[in-house]
Amino acid sequence: MKKSISENHVNEKIVRIVAGQVVLITILLLLTEWRILAYFLIIDFALRAFTTIPSLLALNAKGISRTFNLTPKPIFAPPKKFAAAIGFLFTVTIAVLLYMGLITGAYVVGGILIFCAALEAFLNICIGCYVFNWLVAPFIKTRGV
């Protein structure tokens, strides 16, 4: 089976669907304070940021994409992986704050995560990608230079 997107690229439409799912799960997490949802997001972000193993949200997004016959749109993967790593840190922080009973702090961090994921999902604006381009990309050696 031929892959339509290379190893260094991801499907932008899948990324945006995943971001929408993150918005919904994070809202549910904050409304219910079910820490299991935080743990789920931690694992999902970790899989997307630090491995090549597909996460449950990514697999679900691929199914949604197939259902609606969305044409793949390849985009450069490293900024998206960096953004997922930031999401991982945010969800770890939310879980710790909930564990410690610091609900207001969890709402603040969760609100930031929801805001950033909503920007990605609905407006195709990736804050983590901007941070990657400002802080990481200048230090990456380019080939042939």
Structure description:
The chain has 145 residues and is mainly α. The chain is 71% helix and 4% strand. It contains six helices and two strands, in the order βαααβααα. A two-stranded antiparallel sheet has the order 1-2. Helix 1 crosses helix 3 and helix 4 packs antiparallel against helix 5. The chain is globular, with a radius of gyration of 16 Å. It starts with 8 loop residues before the first strand and ends in a 9-residue tail after the last helix. The mean pLDDT is 92.
- Helix-residue proportion: over 70%
Task: Assign the structural class, choosing from mainly alpha, mainly beta, alpha/beta, alpha+beta, or little secondary structure.
Answer: mainly alpha
How many DSSP E strands? 2
Rg, alpha carbons: 16 Å
* Major sheet details: 2 strands, antiparallel
The string of secondary-structure elements, in order, is EHHHEHHH
As residue ranges, the low-confidence spans are: none
Instruction: Indicate the overall shape.
Output: globular
Strand portion: under 5%
Kindly report how far apart the N and C termini lie: 36 Å
- What is the arithmetic mean of pLDDT? 92
Adjacency order of strands in the biggest sheet: 1-2
How many distinct helices?
A: 6
